[in-house]
Amino acid sequence: MPSLTNSPAPAADCAAPAALPTADQAVAHTLLNCLLREVSGPEHQTAVDHGRLLLRLPRRGVLLRVALRRTSLLGAHRFTGPVSEQTADGWAEVGWRRLAEYVHAELSLRTGVDNEEFLDQIASSHQAVSAALAARTEQDPAAPAAGADDWRAAYVASEQSLLLGHRFHPTPKARTGDPTAWQSYAPETGAVFPLLLLAVREELIAEEGSGDGATAPLDALHADVPDGYRLLPVHPWQYELLRDHAGLAEALEHDDIRVLGSSETPFAATASVRTLYDGDTFLKFSLNVRITNCLRKNASYELSGAVALTRLLAPALTDLATRFPGAAVLREPAYRSLALPGADGRPDTELLEASASSSARACPSGCCRAPPRCWRARSPTSTPPATRTSPASWTAPPRRPRWSGGPPTSTCWCRRCSPPTSTTAWCWSRICRTCWSASTATGCRRRSSSATWRAPSSSPNTTPACWHRCPSRSRRR
Question: Which of 111, 131, 224, 330 is the most buried (most CB within 10 A)?
Answer without folding.
Answer: 131
